[in-house]
């Protein structure tokens, strides 16, 4: 009975984490450059269940002992599940034209803007940038957008800023810098760090990218699939409910067993 409680409880924990993950995906459906998170669920090892019974048929061999019960297979017993991993899906989100010269989108999936944060260089697909009072190109959180020569700086009153498809930033026909863009050989090893930023866990193998297409005046929207998320939310609710009922039933069975022992004693 105790094993059954743990098995059902593990199912409730998985269902709760699935619901939390899906809710976060839905909450960020309008977040620029957001990449939805998936859950990889792993089943715990199963147990082989046997039943002792008397073998009615003839038995031969060195272990043949007439009248001695034998173990007959009944089936397998599940022992629960756990969340194995929570990878992001890096598929391209839809592009939306804004006309804002500081809004930038990246074509393709394996390229990221480099931004300087207090914790170090981080990576993002959110290209909604602006210019701070010092002329630095920054994210909406104030982090510096990096070029090949460091933080990109423009002269706000010196004409329009243009960004070419290769990331070259120019003003009045004069090249200022080129956006620092990074691709990863093992993109699945990137992890979210909040504020739409990604961090290399140490195995993503970052490399300076060439050939990434920068689209000025557009933003990449979230790649969250609303329909799938709603279905997953219903599934998580049903998982949690069924496992919760199982826990209650096993708890009641345990109470009855304790009462019977007390009565017998």
From TrEMBL:
Cellular component, GO, one term: bacterial-type flagellum basal body, rod
Keyword ATP-binding in annotation: no
Coiled coil: none
Record domain Flagellar basal-body/hook protein C-terminal: where: 216-259
Domain Flagellar hook protein FlgE/F/G-like D1: 110-170
SUPFAM superfamilies: Flagellar hook protein flgE
Any Pfam family matching the protein: LlgE_F_G_D1
Keywords: Cell projection, Cilium, Flagellum
GO biological process: bacterial-type flagellum-dependent swarming motility
InterPro entries referenced in this protein's UniProt entry, alphabetically: Flag_bb_rod_N (IPR001444), Flagellar_basal_body_rod_CS (IPR019776), Flagellar_FlgE/F/G (IPR020013), Flg_bb/hook_C_dom (IPR010930), FlgE/F/G-like (IPR037925), FlgF (IPR012836), LlgE_F_G-like_D1 (IPR053967)
Family: Belongs to the flagella basal body rod proteins family.
Name recorded for this polypeptide: Putative flagellar basal body and hook protein FlgE
Species this protein is from: mine drainage metagenome
Organism phylogeny: unclassified sequences, metagenomes, ecological metagenomes
């Amino acid at each position: 009975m105790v094993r059954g409680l743990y098995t059902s409880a593990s199912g409730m924990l998985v269902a709760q984490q699935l619901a939390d993950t899906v809710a976060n995906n839905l909450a960020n459906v309008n977040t620029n450059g957001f990449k939805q998170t998936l859950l990889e669920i792993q089943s715990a090892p199963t147990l082989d269940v046997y039943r002792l019974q008397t073998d009615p048929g003839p038995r031969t061999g060195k272990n043949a002992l007439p009248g001695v019960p034998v173990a007959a297979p009944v089936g397998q017993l599940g022992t629960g599940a756990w969340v194995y991993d929570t990878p992001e899906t890096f598929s391209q989100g839809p592009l939306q034209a804004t006309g804002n010269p500081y809004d930038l989108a990246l074509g393709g999936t394996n390229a990221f803007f480099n931004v300087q944060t207090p914790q170090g260089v981080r990576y993002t697909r959110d290209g909604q940038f602006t210019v701070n009072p010092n002329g630095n190109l920054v994210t909406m959180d104030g982090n510096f957008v990096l070029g090949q020569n460091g933080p990109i700086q423009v002269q706000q009153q010196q004409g329009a800023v243009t960004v070419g498809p290769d990331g070259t930033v120019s003003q009045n026909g004069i090249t200022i810098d080129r956006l620092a863009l990074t691709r990863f050989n093992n993109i699945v090893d990137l992890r979210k760090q909040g504020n739409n930023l990604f961090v290399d866990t140490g195995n993503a193998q970052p490399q300076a990218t060439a050939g990434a297409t920068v689209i000025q005046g557009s933003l990449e929207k979230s790649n969250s699939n609303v329909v799938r998320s709603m279905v997953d939310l219903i599934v998580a609710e049903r998982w949690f409910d069924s496992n919760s009922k199982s826990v209650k039933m096993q708890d009641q069975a345990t109470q009855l067993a304790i009462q019977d022992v007390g009565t017998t004693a």
